[in-house]
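JOB MANIFEST
job_type = single_chain_structure
chain_count = 1
residues = 157
[input]
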Amino acid sequence: MVRGQASGDNLDRPAFAELQAAIFKGEVNCIVTWKLDRLSRTIQDGLNVLSDWCNRGIRVVSVTQQIDFNGTLGRMLAAVLLGIAEMEQQNRRERQRVGIDVAKACGVYKGRKLGSTKAKPNRVRQLRERGLTDGEIAAALSVSRRTVQRYLRHVGA
């Protein structure tokens, strides 16, 4: 599993792509997750993926929630749990934004120093010249794909 900027905010995650490929090849018949919100923190993405997996005959189980999401009751519970996960994510972002605003007003929060970056933009360009995709570069440098794309716009690759 690739670590870095992978998040349940979206399905653009290297390990998730690997899982989907294995499912498409018919190599997976059961998926066990810690909690359903590890799959997705949006109702739409979560339900779409879960429905696809269940329609393919794949059993989906949450360990901590002790729920098997196959069947009508499981899908209904999934909708509720994914809705709660999305709501919690939005609340967390709102609290973070308010906290940053308060810290800025108090002169405590200064944000990222001008000119600092999460990775070396020139390294991003070098990896692109080697033929790596945005996702591969992001995984190699432990940054998001959007960061890679922003660096590529600025360094002209």
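[summary]
Helices lie at 14-24, 43-55, 72-105, 121-129, 134-141, 145-155.
Strands lie at 30-33, 59-62, 67-68.
exit_status = 0
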